[in-house]
Amino acid sequence: MASARRAAPALAGLAVTVLLVLYVARHGSVLGSTISHGVELAAASLAWWGSRRQPAHRRTAAMLLALGLTLFLLADLSWWAQAQLDLGAEVAPSDALYLSSYAALASGLWRLAGSRERRTEDLLAGFIDAVVVFLAALTVVWHLSLASLASDAHLPTGTRIVWSLYPALDALLIGLALRLFVRRDASPLVVAAGAGIWLVCDIGYLLGANATVMSLSLDSGWMAGAVLIALATVSRPSERPIDPRRDREDSARGVLGRLAICLCALLVPTGMEAVNDMGGVEEEPGLLLVVSVLLVGLLFARTMLLVRAEAAARARLVSQQRYSAALAAHSSDAVVVLGRNGQLLSDPATLPAEYQRGRGIESADLVRELGADPGEALAMFLRAIEAAGEMVDAELECARQGEAYWYGVRLADLTDDPDVRGVVIHITDITARKRAEEALAHQAFHDALTGLANRALFADRVDQALRRGARSGGRPAVVFIDLDGFKGVNDTLGHAAGDALLRGVAARLRGVVRIEDTVARLGGDEFALLVEQSGADEAVATAQRVLDALAEPFPLDGQSVTVSGSVGIAVGDAASTSDSLVGDADIAMYAAKLSGRGRSVVFDPAMRASAVAARELEQELQGALARGELRLAYQPVVDLADDRVTGFEALLRWDSRRLGPVCPSRFVPVAEASGLIEAIGAWVLHEACTAAAAWRAEHGRDLTMAVNVSAVQLTSPHLIGHITDALAASGLPASALVLEVTETALVSDPERASECLAALRALGLRLALDDFGTGYSSLAHLRQFTVDVLKIDRSFVATIGDDGVMPPIVRGMIDLGRTLGLEIVAEGVETETQRRLLVEGSCDSAQGYLFARPLEPADASLLLLATSVRAGA
């Protein structure tokens, strides 16, 4: 359908051509008249069809042109009927139709020009151009025909006026068509050609001797003019993409063409005078003078419009330049144009102030002011030239006054563009964005609290160190550190103090490593060091420096806080990976924690199995209390003087559903290392105190209950609360509770231990030093830590044989306790000889299999009942 519509004008033109040929062949006959009217009908129909294709703003004008051609057809039919009826009137109704057709055509051309020229200046300029052409054409017509017609006294005045209107209106149509001659459009030329043909035919008609018989040329000319005007209505505005530069060029050429025609119009009076002189025709100087004055006046007005338009354009250009300069002065972006030789082509004044620090600005000055590397800038510029108009994006790192800046640069070689003729460079300051990206990258790979490397960055550094070691033969090592006692600081002083402690630890760790080593916080209270290309000796030395640095108290909130660290060391080898090396150091750290904290352990492959078992044990232990798998057994404490039960020691037992019975020596260190010991210890205190209170009430005896307290519990801020809660809930007197601590627990943090023991004694509790002789066995400790009971470890009691002789070391311990006024309790008594010798040595109490194994609560109650019965008997 669309292709058929496009082909319709061509087919119509072909049909008209065929009809014209037939018309020439049959001119003067009825067939010739029929062909003539058919051509005019086709032209009118074509015009109506073309008006429907026009856009809305041109449709009314095109319909007026179609109406004009229709009226022309009706006028011709009326004139033909008049001729057939041989009316012979010089002015007839057909003239009214002809003149109406001119009015419709003129109205259509006027509206068509108005649809193009929106501004008042353009409308006025077009009107002046039309009047100039109309005057010039009218002057020519006057001298050719109108002058003689106007002076012909044989014709009535009305006839002369009507006949004079035809060429005058033809001239008017030519002038109106000239208004359309602005852009690249053939329709105004077609209309002007059609109106010009009509003008020639009308003049020929007026000059003809016989007005009733049309010559072939005049009839053909009128038909051709109608066809040309119809073709003008078919033309549509171009639908090509908008090209402002091309539109400006077309408009400029159109205006210049109109001006050229107007200037040529000035030659018409002079030309007519010359023709009159050559032909010996009487001159009319007054008329020519009037026409000349009118033309000069109109062209002067036209020139004034041009001057005003140019002044307005210059003012707009200056305003735009000022606007651009103001924007540039307050913008961080700059746009410059350079020639391919590097010469600055754009105005330096349009650059922002920060790019104009020097007096003269050239391309080299701009590079220097930015602080960019000239070689990098040149390479980027050459890359843009090689891209041949394609956009090139780059980032330029610069340095000014010791500070880094970044600029985003976009280049395009537009040398072939006549409006640019250079390489356009758009420069944007992206320093803020780059610094934000660096900050984000730092946050992604650094710990926010301490500023140390995080786990991701540390793993990458370890991986790089292992690769370097594989090439150079070095052996990097990882030192894994877990703080001991950090939870207590958080719980007692708050998280702000805990954060301050972590920052203090980070600062000290930085001070014990070399510049090429890496310090990282892996999370929580875990830190790690990467000791580059060191081997085991340097790693062990670094670990010792870590322990020494952590041993110094940390000042927090006006008080001194001491923490220690469990340190694991793993040295890489050819088979190591980042994950395996860090994992091995973590295993070694766990072994150090199980060994008593505050020490370092070097990883051994055999630790992997024990570490896996310990992790499994820890996972099971985490839910043991909730599942009811923990229980207490009670071992009696017997007065050696009369074999009377004076109290019990609560012993923790774990019967795991999955692992079966687990020895305390296995799970208690795991509970201490994992932090579970606090919850378990609180439960033990509650159960033991409840049992002791019940037995005291049931049997009416002042029994004591001994409960073991670990080093972790001793440093916990919650221990006092747990004890007071257990005593309050059970109703047990504080004096009936004996807390057993080891020498190792006391000396790990002497100051903290001394403070805690003093607080416990203030509650009225009794304190026992457990396993004396197996640890430091320092008399200074006995003086520093005030205790009530001294317990001799079973390993020394076992040295008492059947020879009936008390070992000197056991006698020395008993004598030492007596001297210090302490109650002496011997552990692990299994034979009668051991009991007898301990009695002879003045030992106060004992416990062991000789008297009873650890008992369940019911069995312990029966034992008390039995001893009560024996005592009553």
Describe this structure in words.
- It is a single chain.
- The protein contains 32 helices and 20 strands.
- By secondary structure, the chain is of the alpha/beta class.
- The protein has an eight-stranded mixed beta barrel, surrounded by four helices. A five-stranded mixed beta sheet has the order 6-7-5-10-11, with helices on both faces.
- α3 (56-84) packs antiparallel against α8, α6 runs antiparallel to α7 (187-207) and α7 runs antiparallel to α8.
- The model is unreliable at 209-213 (pLDDT under 50).
Secondary structure layout:
Blueprint: H1 2-25, H2 30-53, H3 56-84, H4 93-116, H5 120-150, H6 157-179, H7 187-207, H8 216-234, H9 244-265, H10 267-279, H11 285-329, E1 333-338, H12 363-370, H13 374-386, E2 392-400, E3 403-413, E4 423-429, H14 431-445, H15 455-472, E5 477-484, H16 486-493, H17 495-511, E6 518-523, E7 526-531, H18 536-551, E8 554-556, E9 559-561, E10 564-571, H19 578-594, E11 600-602, H20 607-622, H21 624-627, E12 630-639, E13 644-656, E14 660-662, H22 664-674, H23 677-699, E15 704-708, H24 711-714, H25 719-730, E16 737-742, H26 743-747, H27 750-762, E17 766-772, H28 779-784, E18 789-792, H29 794-797, H30 808-820, E19 823-827, H31 832-840, E20 845-847, H32 857-872
Helix pairs in contact: 1-2, 1-8, 2-3, 2-8, 3-4, 3-8, 4-6, 5-6, 5-9, 5-11, 6-7, 7-8, 10-11, 15-19, 16-17, 20-22, 23-25
